[in-house]
Design brief:
The chain is an alpha+beta fold. The chain contains 13 helices and 33 strands. Among the domains are: 215 residues, DD-peptidase/beta-lactamase superfamily (Beta-lactamase, 3-Layer(aba) Sandwich), CATH 3.40.710; 87 residues, Beta Barrel (Lipocalin); 83 residues, Lipocalin (Beta Barrel). Helix content is 22%, strand content 29%. A hairpin with a 5-residue loop joins strand 16 and strand 17.
């Protein structure tokens, strides 16, 4: 009987065929014990957990499972447990497109409408490269489907449902190539392109051209949620009563998600980036190119991979989150170190776990360097940030600046309205610091100069301009946007009455009813249920991830509203 749910692959120099293509190298027990400490909170037989794989120069040097893969049958997680890895799938979809491009059957620079004419003509070319780099401007499919009333873990979303809602769209978030904004829609379309060009489903094409050649025997694109998966680790989340409930995706959408794999198979995938046996080094180099915007700015994303840094070391990787599954796959190219963490519980935070494991191995590597080499590593900047004086600062190192007076900070509080999407951002003062409560960049703003703040734990810098009327907030860095401070607004019941009515959107095929109840504006959609609308700025409301901004017609009366999420902007609803 298991008393501690922990299954380990230790290194046996037996040339064993079960891990062919991902050789396991011998190592001392030191790092293994440290890694086990990282996962100590998940090493129990009566709860979900994680699998971890540590890969050096393409070889799996440590793999272990913690916790339970199936709480009903008391099955432990092992390095062979199969997890849904959500958005880690994107790099595999990009590889499928890259292989077809290498075959001469398509081009990254082709317009998507050449292969998927269901996509509306938005007046500008949306290329396959735009889709792969999240620079297409296409609204995110999950946001659109939720606006339409789809219920996660209740409704089965299929590829055709995404194409249907996409075909209804009348506008983009922004012109193709103008900005970066994460959109799962692009990768669903890339999966459709693979199917229509190759004559095979993405599942079949990836099996023939990627998984079989790399001997990834436990990996597949799962395009039928009812199909059996051998050695599956089921995902769980706690219910209101504190008991675990099964929480697995029930959609049949592939491309942006739905890859099932193991840490062992991810080691085989990683090995190819050193050998180039699949695709060749030219294709692999192309997949590592970061996207470039129309104005020449280079984004931190390209072809299913996010480029970043940690402790002064460059990183390439991706995370994933669907239902109760969480995953992170992170490579340190210069150190030839890659770490995979796959979990089956939503609070597991594999992003933190991967970096904690990286600390173990990066410290081992640093200890082996000379003093001068170590100093060079420590001096490597994480992300340069201009401090407005011509000198460069570094994210992660505190800049000594005077703390603003609370009275000054109070002038910056309130709701701000983003110029391009109408989404609000709320600033408050908490514990003497300016704090963002809503918007895509949440957290504490640390002083970095006069009217300049740095978002804690991020390369994002905020600059306030208070020279003319309400404050203007410019966010630069990974999250870039311009916000305008709005006046305080708390409408009375009679003021809310002008918004009452029925509204319909042809773009998502949904009708919303609005009424006033006990001094609050309420919204109802037959499948979303009833939601309270919280005032933000004049004519703006927030509810459950939706941001509404009402518009007036020629006569001054309300004629509709637009609704935005962080990834789908200004979907139109007209008053009926």
């Amino acid at each position: 009987m298991f008393t501690v749910r922990s299954v380990t692959i230790t290194i046996l120099a037996l040339g064993c065929g079960w891990l062919a293509g991902a050789p396991v190298q011998a190592q001392s027990p030191g790092p293994a014990a440290s890694v086990d400490e990282v996962f100590a909170g998940w090493s129990r037989p009566d709860g979900p957990g994680c699998a971890v794989g540590v890969i050096r120069t393409g070889s799996l040097v440590y793999a272990q499972g913690y916790g339970s893969a199936n709480l009903e049958y008391d099955i432990p997680i092992t390095p062979s447990s199969v997890f849904h890895v959500a958005s880690i799938s994107k790099q595999f979809t990009a590889m499928a497109v890259a292989l077809l491009a290498a075959d001469g059957r398509l081009s990254w620079d082709h317009d998507i409408r050449r292969y998927v004419p269901e996509v509306p003509d938005f007046g500008a070319s949306v290329t396959l490269r735009h889709l792969a780099n999240h620079t297409s401007g296409l609204r995110d499919q999950w946001s659109l489907l939720r606006m339409a009333g789809w219920r996660w873990e209740e409704d089965v979303v299929k590829q055709m449902d995404v194409l249907d809602v996409l075909s209804r769209q009348r506008a983009l978030n922004f012109p193709p190539g103008a900005e970066f904004l994460y959109s799962n829609t692009g990768y669903t379309l890339l999966a459709v392109v693979v199917e229509r060009v190759s004559g095979q489903s993405l599942r079949a094409f990836a099996e023939d051209r990627i998984f079989a050649p790399l001997e990834m025997r436990d990996t597949e694109f799962h395009d039928d949620h009812t199909a059996l998966v051998r050695n599956r680790a089921y995902a769980y989340r706690r219910g209101d009563d504190g008991a675990y409930r099964v929480s697995i995706p029930d959609f049949d959408v592939v491309g942006p998600t739905s890859l099932f794999t193991t840490v062992e198979d991810l080691a085989r995938w990683e090995r190819n980036f050193y050998t180039g046996e699949l695709g060749g080094h030219g294709v692999l180099a192309d997949l590592h190119q970061r996207g470039t915007l129309s104005d020449g700015r280079v984004v931190s994303y390209g072809a299913g991979l996010t480029h970043g840094s940690y402790r002064g070391h460059l990183t390439v990787g991706h995370g994933g989150a669907d239902a109760g599954y969480r995953s992170e796959f992170l490579r340190f190219p210069a150190q030839e170190l890659t770490i995979a963490v796959l979990c089956n519980e939503p609070s597991s935070n594999p992003d933190r776990l991967v970096r904690a494991v990286a600390d173990v191995y990066l410290d081992l590597a640093a200890a082996a360097q000379s003093t001068s080499e170590l100093r060079a590593v420590e001096a490597t900047p994480v992300a340069p940030v201009s401090n407005g004086s011509g000198a460069g600062g570094v994210v992660g190192r505190e800049e000594v600046v005077d703390m603003p007076l609370l009275a000054d900070l109070a002038q910056l509080t309130g709701f701000y309205r983003r110029d391009d999407s109408d989404t609000p951002l709320q600033l408050v003062v908490r514990d003497g610091s300016l704090t963002i409560l809503t918007g895509g960049a949440n957290g504490t703003l640390l002083p970095a100069g006069t009217d300049r703040f740095r978002l804690a734990g991020s390369a994002t810098v905020g600059t306030f301009d208070r020279t003319d009327g309400p404050a203007i907030l410019e966010l630069s860095g990974p999250v870039g946007a311009r916000y305008r401070q709005e006046p305080h607004w708390r409408p009375a019941a009679d003021e809310l009455a002008r918004f009452v009515g029925n509204y319909y959107s042809a773009e998502v095929g949904a009708q919303y009813s609005l009424w006033v109840e006990r001094g609050r504006l309420m919204l109802r959609e037959r499948r979303l249920g009833t939601l309270p609308l919280i005032p933000t700025y004049p004519g703006g409301f927030f509810t459950s991830g939706f941001y509404l901004s009402f518009t007036d017609g020629p006569g001054g009366s309300v004629d509709g509203f637009t609704i935005s999420t962080e990834r789908a902007w200004k979907v139109r609803f007209d008053r009926q």
